[in-house]
From TrEMBL:
Keywords assigned: Hydrolase
Domain of life: Bacteria
Residues forming coiled coils: none
GO molecular function, one term: magnesium ion binding
Stored PANTHER family: HAD SUPERFAMILY HYDROLASE-LIKE, TYPE 3, PHOSPHOSERINE PHOSPHATASE
Residues that span the membrane, as ranges: none
SUPFAM superfamilies: HAD-like (SSF56784)
Species whose genome carries this gene: Kribbella sindirgiensis
Protein name: HAD family hydrolase
Gene Ontology CC terms: cytosol
Length: 269
């Protein structure tokens, strides 16, 4: 591991990493991010969140104006509220995968994220408020168009256990992971991960993996953490993350990302 004195690119997950457990971003974290950007580093949020959940964090985006959302499926212009690039699951493949999962795990419930719309089955246990234009429909209608993510929820299984059941069912047709949600597995197109879109974004900025530091806390962050020149797991991270990162930062509730950035950049007063 070689830690760059002044990382040119800072990539971070949001929930469980940059964002505190109460859903807030602290003043300390805001100051640390601003100091990094003022010093010339590029800061990018790389998250499982859908596009609509980034608008309240637009003040952190920086001059480039974009975030990587939906586990790397979408490069999103936060200020213009527009997808710039998307790698989606084709309807035929998505439906085959959903049918295979339901046949093997009968109690699962499905939802989808498109670049511009959310949809779910009527029985889906939604843990967050639904958008007003939510598409409520059977899985066949939900997957009639390409999807950024197919969400698989189970009412009682832990996400790790559910992922263990889903992976052998889907094979290489899609990419399955989870972001620590309760009984939730998130499926993207084959080969899509936070790392793939981050690498593409870094190339547009003329920045290499060696010049990048990345922060994460969950299984879906593993590809990004492996790609970055230096990886940090917050202390509250999933055991699989803590086992492979280069460094461990304080927890998200202790502003772990800010603590690391302050070691590189002097916060603005």
């Amino acid at each position: 591991m070689t830690v760059p004195r002044n990382p040119r690119l800072i990539a971070t997950d949001l929930d469980g990493t940059l964002v505190r457990s109460d859903g807030t971003v602290s003043d300390r974290t805001r100051a640390a991010v601003l100091a990094a950007q003022t010093a010339g580093s590029v800061f990018v949020m790389v998250t499982a969140r859908p596009p609509r959940w980034l608008h309240d964090l637009s003040h952190l985006v920086g001059d480039h104006g974009v975030a990587i959302v939906a586990n790397g499926s979408i490069l999103y212009d936060v200020l213009r509220r527009k997808a710039i690039r998307a790698r989606l699951i084709e309807p035929t493949i998505a439906l085959e995968v959903a049918q295979a999962i339901r046949a093997a795990i009968p109690d699962v419930q499905f939802a989808i994220e498109r670049p511009d719309r959310y949809g779910q089955e009527p029985v889906y246990l939604n843990r967050w408020p639904k958008p007003d234009d939510t598409l409520i429909a059977a899985i066949e209608e939900l997957l009639a168009e390409p999807a950024a993510k197919l969400l698989v929820r189970h009412p009682s299984l832990h996400s790790d256990e559910l992922l263990g059941l889903v992976n052998p069912l889907v094979g290489q047709r899609v990419t399955a992971s989870h972001s620590g949600g309760h009984g939730l597995v998130e499926i993207s197109a084959s080969g899509v991960s936070k790392a793939t879109m981050l690498a593409d974004f870094a190339a547009t900025q003329g920045i290499s993996a060696a010049e990048t530091i990345a922060f994460g806390d969950s299984v879906n962050d593993l590809p990004m953490l492996a790609w970055a020149g230096t990886s940090y797991g917050v202390a509250n991270a999933h055991p699989e993350v803590l086992a492979v990162v280069d460094e461990i930062a304080p927890t998200n509730d202790e502003d772990g990302v800010a603590a690391v950035l302050e070691g590189f950049f002097q916060p603005l007063k």
